[in-house]
Amino acid sequence: MIWYVLAGVIVTVGLLGTVLPVIPGTMLIFAGLFLAAWAGQFAYVGAVGLTIIGILAVLAFVADLVASLLGAKRVGASPQALVGATIGGLIGLFLGIPGLILGPFIGAVGGELLARGRLRHAGKVGFGTWVGLVFAAVVKVVIAFMMIATFLIFYLMNGA
């Protein structure tokens, strides 16, 4: 019983992490669901269900990594802006929530200014990067609920 409670706590923290960038949300959800499957000796949710949930977790992780790059690219960002967004995002990881929110924006703006020197266009590129981050957050929330729904479907299908 304690394992199920712990699994529930981990999944709940993971759900928070889908909107709080400092917490690896979907990876925690996967860990919590895996723990719950293990606690049930994989009788209700086994390899197939966990594989589907794992693939969804990886998709969420990839969406999170590439979203700011795609947002920047969509508004005509230079290669330097894309590199800047990546570097800004990586540096932002160490600066908490403000760094995670502003890092890709500042990096994209800086890279675009180095490439083209036009402030208005650089601001547009930075905004596109930020929109990409918001899009990634929405995608992560949707995927998180898909992961939980997949677990519940397998759990209920197998006689729980």
Low-confidence stretches: none
Q: Could you tell me the radius of gyration in angstroms?
A: 19 Å
Total discrete domains: 1
Q: What overall form do the CA principal axes indicate?
A: elongated
Q: What structural category arises from helix and sheet content?
A: mainly alpha
The count of β-strands is 0
For the termini, the CA-CA separation is 15 Å
Percent helix, as a range, is over 70%
Keywords:
160 residues, mainly alpha, 83% helix
Task: Characterise the protein shown here.
- With 160 residues, the chain is mostly helical.
- The protein is built from six helices and no strands.
- Helix 2 packs parallel to helix 6 and helix 3 (47-74) packs across helix 4 (79-92).
- The two termini are 15 Å apart.
- The mean pLDDT is 88.
What is this structure, in a nutshell?
The protein is mainly α and 160 residues long. The chain has helices at residues 2-17, 25-39, 47-74, 79-92, 96-116, 119-157. The chain is elongated, with a radius of gyration of 19 Å.
